[in-house]
Amino acid sequence: MSGGVALGRRGYSAPFFAAYFLYYAGYCVFSSFIVPYLTQLGISATLCGVITSLTLLANLLMEPVGGYITDTFLTTRKYLLICIGLISALCVTLWAERPLVSIPLLVLEAGLAYPFSQLMDAWVDGSRALDPGLIYSRVRAGGSIGFAAASIAAGYCFRLFGWDGYFLIQAGLFCLMIPFLLALPKLELGNRREQNQDVLSMAMAFRVLGKNPRYLLCLLLCTLYWFSHRPIGSFLSLIVQDRAGDAGVYGAVCGAGAVVECLGLLALAVFQRRIGCSQWFLMGGALAAGLLRPICFWLLPGLWPLYVGQCLQSLSFAFFFSGSVECFARTADRRVRSFSISMGLTVSSVAGTIGANLLGGWLCDLLGSWTIVLLSLGVSAGNCLLFLACWFLILHREPSS
Question: pTM of this prediction?
Fold first, then answer.
């Protein structure tokens, strides 16, 4: 491996943990506070919805570009460092308040920033050959901690000092990632002529994935997972209101979930290191735990089921984050491994989220928030049945290597 180190000579868990912490802290500031930032500028809620949808589409468009580049032309480290420079420049420009170009630049920033997580997920998977002690769930817990810490700290900061530092905070957090990225390995590019004669173009890479039934099956399961979660996740505040809760209850419910997600990832890392578990066990655990949240919301009245359900969903995330990366890694084409993993994670997330938001919002306006709980329950149950059918027919026959 180019730029690698001798097996077992160096650990990458700490720099990956720090990189995830800082990335998800910056991601939290950008994504979680973008709507209140825009509304305080006088932008309508409808236009805010359009802008946030455009940021998701920018992510979907830029992800295959980043994945293909990091398989073919640049190492993941070099590509992410270039993106950090561009993001910082955009943040400084947006901070200067140029209203005629601010929205396009905001969408462009999302297109550069959002694909980070999927590209780092693929980077962790490729680095395990250099560091046998590297466990995805452990380093991904850094992202959960970073998101929770940034949510609390940024909210307090904006309340005290206003929104002037919104973009500068993002630029600072991304720049703090640089020394940790430099401490991570430079992996060999798989889609290079010196490695194999069959170099894939981007169009060919899409065709290879489209002809891989196992990969497409993983994509379907992960898309349905996001579609089953997002109706409640996107409109949880409405469910809280319908149960006589306020903003404080909503924040406490989300905070409890973040804590459980972090603890679940750390516990899963210990379990994987001591015992080990397959990607299908992880996906099965994610789907089963995800099914329990809408059941809890549907059957039990009052506020306390909201806490229980959110914690169950966060436990589901702990399984899903590890299981989905592993599934796409096992079914990826070795020449475009980064492209395959990052594309699978991004397409499933974006497609599932947009579909759930559109259908969930329509049902909520039409019939009330109880319908999105029922929608989540139905899709979760269907996905569990699909997974079991696939397990018995196909997935259990997959080679272990």
Answer: 0.79
